[in-house]
Amino acid sequence: LPKVPAYQVLRKFNTFVNLVEVAALLGLSFVSSKENYEVHKGCFILFMVCSEVYMVLTCLLLKDNTRQFVGLMEHRAYSIKKQLTVANLFCFMVALYFYYRHNAYCEPGMYTAFAFMEYFIVLTNMGFHMAAYYDFYHYQLTVTEFKPSFSNST
């Protein structure tokens, strides 16, 4: 991103939102709704809000800088992220609709439909983050064993 102060602030905010998203996801993983419904619900809401903000803001920040993409892989990553963000937002709205109908009318099958949409929300979120593969396509991560060299001169 350009070294414009507004972009730098938004980049830092987006990083913070992503960290909160991950922390909320950890909370969801460790606290079940049967164990502590209020904590689980809070983590879910925090995860969803931060997830949506992160995905949308990432796409908006990248949208203004598509001319600076140097390769096909960066364009592919951006395209995939846009598509998955739209799909995620759609799934989230549909899930909210089912959750509302479940709570407002206690209709049979509404909570099941809500839970089903949760799977699509999770899959589109995972796909969004896995698109980083294309962002780092030209990089190689090498993990090696570190052996310190000690001199044993006595």
Automatic annotation (TrEMBL):
One of its GO terms (cellular component) is Golgi membrane. It comes from the Eukaryota. Pfam families: Frag1. It is a multi-pass membrane protein. InterPro entries: CWH43_N, PGAP2. It is found in: Golgi apparatus membrane. Keywords: Golgi apparatus, GPI-anchor biosynthesis, Membrane, Transmembrane, Transmembrane helix. The chain crosses the membrane at residues 12-32, 44-62, 83-100, 112-134. The keyword Membrane applies. Signal peptide: none annotated. Residues 9-138 form the CWH43-like N-terminal domain. The keyword Membrane applies. GO terms for biological process: GPI anchor biosynthetic process. Its main location: Golgi. Belongs to the PGAP2 family. This is Post-GPI attachment to proteins factor 2-like.
